Amino acid sequence: MAIVRYILTIGLACQNDVQGEITVVDGEWNFDSDDLLTLRFRDGRWFDFTPGNSSGRPPSRTYQISPAAGGRGLFSPK
Predict the structure, then answer these.
(1) Which residues pair with 21 in a beta bridge?
(2) Cβ(51)–Cβ(36) under 8 Å?
(3) 3-class DSSP state for residue 67?
(4) Phi and psi torsions of 67, nearest 5°
(5) Which of 17, 23, 40, 70 could disulfide-pair with 11, CB 3.0 to 4.6 Å?
(6) Tens digit of each residue's pLDDT (9 = 90 or more) over 21-47
(7) For the chain, what is the total number of helices (H) and then of strands (E)?
(8) Rounded Cα gap, residues 49 and 57, in angstroms
(9) What is the DSSP letter of 69?
(10) How far apart are CA 69 and CA 36, in angstroms?
(11) What is the total count of domains within the chain?
(12) Which residue has the higher pLDDT, 36 or 69?
């Protein structure tokens, strides 16, 4: 589990069209691009994503995110 700051761009036509980045503030932060992670928002929505390190350097605390293949996209469990 980790606490993150995030910046997301959500498509108007399709809310599963989500791109952005997360920066880990506290907690686990060494992720692989094969990891399936879930961002849980305070308003109850969730977003399944895979992390990417676009710099090519060893893992940092900032990751590019995009929808996970086979993930649920952006959804509300209600």
Answers:
(1) 7, 64
(2) no
(3) strand
(4) -55, 140
(5) 17
(6) 989 899 888 887 788 888 888 888 888
(7) 0, 6
(8) 20
(9) T
(10) 9
(11) 1
(12) 36
DSSP annotation of 7 reads E
**Hey, what are 46's tokens?**
């969730």
Determine which of 48-52, 62-66, 69-73 has the lowest per-residue pLDDT on average.
69-73
- Total-model pTM: 0.73
- Which residue range forms the structural domain that includes residue 21? 2-75
Coil, strand or helix: which one is 30? coil
Cα 23 from Cα 34, distance rounded (Å): 18
Structure tokens at 53: 């390190």
| Number of other CB atoms surrounding residue 70 within 10 Å | 8
Supply the Cα-derived Rg of the chain in whole angstroms: 12
